Amino acid sequence: MDAESFGARIIVSSRSENGGGFFTGHARLSNVEFVNTGQKGYFELDDARFSITYSDTGTVSSIKPSYVKGCAFHDGFSPAIGLFGANGMIIENNVIHHTVKHAIWTTSVNTTIRGNLAVLNIWTESYEAAIEAFEATNLTLLDNAVSASERMCYHVPGTECDSGNAGKYINNIGHSCLIGTGLFPHDANVHSCTRLANFSLWKNHDYGLYYNNYPNTKLTDNMVIENGVNIFSMVVGPSSLEHQYDNKFAFVANTLIVGRTSSFSCSDNGLHSPLGGINGGMVGLTWTTFTSGSNNAPVYPLAGIMAYPAIGGTMHVSDVTFAYFQTSCPNQTDYAIATNEGNDDGNHPLIIERATLEFVDDALKVFIHRPNTEKINSADCVDMDCDAKKKTILTDLDGSFLGKQASVISQSEFEWDVNPVRGLGDYRIPKELLTDFVTGARLDVNSIAKKRGIIRNENCTLRADWQGWLCQGLDYLVLTIESMDADTETRRLSPVAIVAHYGEGYIDLINGPQDHGWCAGYTCRKRLSTFQAVVAAGHNFDMFFTSTSPQHSRYLLLDASESQAVRICAYYSQPNRLDVYHDGTYVLPKNAAYTPTGAMVLKRETYEGQYMPNVNTDASGTNYINIKTGIICFIVKSPRVIEIKTAEVIMVAFGLPMMTVDDFFGQNLVQNLAAFLSIPYSKIRIVNIINEQSSSGRHKRETFAGDKTTIEVEIGNLPSSEINGTGSGVDLSHEELMNISYTLQNEIQSGTNISDVLNTTILSTSIANPLPSPGSEEWASFNPKTSRYVIYNPVQRFEFHTALTPASEGSQFSVQPVLKFLDENGYLVVVGSAENEWQVTASIHPGSGYPWAVLNGNVTVSFVNGFANFTDLSISHMGYGYILDFIISAPTVAQHWNLSSEPFDVPGRKISASQNISGIVIQNDPTKVILDLIDAISLQKIENIAWTGHTWNVTASLVSENSYGTLTGTLSTTFNPSTGKATFSNLNFTAIGPNYIKYHILSEPAWYDEIYIGVIHVMSSSHVNMVVEKTADIILKFPQDYNQYLSTETARSEFHQLVGQYFANKNPDTQITGISSRPGSIVVTITVDGTTYNVNATLFSICDDIESQTPFNFSSTTMYLSSYMVVDGVSYYGVTCGPKSSTETTQSLHPVIWAAIGVTSILILVALIIFILWKCKAYHKTKTHDNDKISYLGGYQKTVERQLLFENSFTSLRGEMISPPPLGTQLSEKYPKRIRSPLNRIQVTPHPLSQF
Fold first, then answer.
1. Taking the model in full, what pTM does it have?
2. How far apart are CA 879 and CA 866, in angstroms?
3. Could you tell me which residue ranges the CEMIP beta-helix domain spans (predicted)?
4. Are 765 and 652 in contact (CB under 8 A)?
């Protein structure tokens, strides 16, 4: 039974009979001892073989009472008690020892588990609890004690926080488990808030009370003592990626938290914190981790994170007693409160009040981990620390924990400009923050803020032991900053700079969370653009994104009172209108007003800061817009949410002559512009009148200084009253707005007098388009530095940037034309865009050139970056006096612009041919040869050979007749006009080797008369199945001048045919597969294939031709081969042939030299042998070191190898000595104290005197 773990069991259940009866069992068990009961491995509920199982017995009643009381279970093979569909059961006063998986397991309703003792529960998989009751409903858990469960003591559902059922869990003890009690994210909790109360948990190895679930939690009325981490909490959800927000919370209240009591034994206990970075010490409680998704515990690390931080969340600690956090064990440090070392992304506020401290060292109250530099990589936090350990707040409301009403904040500036690994320094500050908005000059960072990190005051003290700052007098809050754009994971906005205007000023940088995605087994390289900034209530802050500002952003303060507020002045890189919404309702800027016609306009300040929101007096959402600087300032108060949306509008800046405001008739400009664009008058608003040289205090009647006055006009929809609503009237779509912008751009650039259109003098026009949709390709490539206002100047000249240079007919122009537009000052005008293309079309001017000529290629191209680049224009026919016209074909309004080239001639094309042969050519076997007409310049096949109405004939002949063979067959044919090919169907070659054919091509009419030479290597029938074992490249020389005899292609072809056919016919057992020549006298390279024997025979034969001076008669000259022959790059040595040049001499030594080398080598060898023999017999002059008696070296026998090994001379072979020689003969002090033998690697005791 023990071997099989298969014991007795009791099952109480129900059954039905065929006759229709239904029977329910019941059992009352008390004072029963169960020994070796249950059956291991049968844990499924439909076949639960526990010591005792109640299954589907229904609700206990007086008629069928059931309970288990006062029983003893020990050494079982399964859970002791299982209750499944057995409602109202009482499990009371049982002693359970050594069970498997669980001691008590219930999923039933109204189970009472009271006064039970469970000891030593064996786990089988995952985190199993001695008392498993998570799926039970309305559980009563009283006066139980669990010890030594290999995983969890209790796994129970808890109670609803405010249900009044806290009394159902009373006085339950758990110790010496891995976890005292806990919940995991996969536990399907039905509560909106879960309370775990009235537990006494001590000496649990990892966690005393572990909460990791979706509902809010209240952990109250507990005692947690000497656990690795006494209380750990993680609250999950909702999704920050979906921008879901809930003010989540975790409460710890009325609880005793003890580090190490005086009875704790440092040597006997293996308890330690599972959190790193604190020397294995214990932790009272950790900051609650608020995460937007499960960390899949316990499959993955219990304290780790696998999702972005949640947006909202606050931890509240009240009426908690911390005791015995002192330096009690060496090399271990305990802390009352610590951050979660497994959370790198973001910490939410911790608020504490009414704390009691007993025997808690001040240095051990708080511990904030340093950021983990291993997370600084492209797959996690990228190039700087993530924020959890750098944006942490603990606030003591009444001074009961910190000793004074104060806050602890993390040292966000840690290793700023010190450790480059952290990627933190002034060089990471956004460039816009360091730029003067008026002059564009670079600012000294210290002129903005001299200090780094989170805002502090003179009452802040750096606590190195806490790794944070202790501050009084500042109400710290967490400000959440969200990008609501669709590309929130793919467009990086960080680092985000927060500038605090307090004291000397503070600059803090925020990186955001790490990548948590998995794409095909790799991280997705996506990071959520949601940031947590630590700010102080009642203060003003500036904020700058590093890259393009989001089009839709959201701001909120976590856990702030309604009286607490901050003012944020955020820089937005686009000039488009910014609309502020407070809890979804539009808030008009303080410096804006509505005109009687309903248009919104910005008011001019009479003094600087007139409309700036006041953080102490203005309501949440109050805002101010500075169009000139791109700054929007707004008030954020809790619990209100502020959202900023970039309006989808066109911004147009018209430059007008200087004038007074009274002289400017804005209404006329708006009316004329609306009429021109055919849009309602209400869609156009003058939002600003700018004079950069005037002061803001100028009065209305004053004349604007400077050359011009700039009027900024907004075209688009009015703000909607609700954030997801629409404006008044019919809204213009994005496409309609873009078409309006294109209309304006084209009208201005095409040279239309926009002044006439608007009935006012316009000196310049700049346009900022509506922003592309977030997540689109256009938005991904959007650059705010180049995509703000774009100046559009009218074009004054249309000209060639590069004039064309023609080529022959059918060939692309050797220089393609490039066109451009210039303004009145001769500067390039960039017309159009990728979405609003300006196009130019080229054509042959009527009456120029050949009447039927066609302009080929891409005749219509777009302007890109100001230039229209043609790339492949060509003219089909030769002709004289061609002119090309270039006319703007798009947009329509610019079609009056045209340009013509200078007259040019197109010469006839140079014609050639290409030869095609299928298969091999055999001597005296008719062969089919096909010719294609090609352009001799481009080498491209001419598809339309009848482009000029010509027909084409061709005749074939050998370049020269000789005694080796002739060319016969049908030697004339015609090119087929439909295929462009000429076919010789039966050419017959009587000579083997290279045959050079001259094709004479004539057109009709006789415009073209061309010669093309092709080579065909003819094989004999014996070559067809010849085995090629060797290929040799043979280089020969003729002494004649190459340029005199072979300067033309025809001469070279005749010469190659003569030489190639000679050697091919003389050596018929091999095949000549290639022949070429080059200058250097006449250097000929011949390629020969065949068997090794036959190729070698051919080499000898050629060598014989060199020696015998075989004549070659060419061009009325008898030529002879020079005494030179190189085979595969190596000089060939035959019987009498071979190199005679100085080059060849250097490759061979005189026999006398070789003899001298041999004699010298023998003498050296003899001398070496004599030297070795002498060494073996030699004695050292010092008699105390006798190499024949080396017993002190370990008693090794003397051999030649050992002699050479141990000798201390330059001829020694040894690497290290086994032991040094006696002191009197030791030549140096270089020997180590411990020496490892190179032979057997054993340690040898040093010589006693060697230490001196």
1. 0.72
2. 32
3. 26-120
4. yes
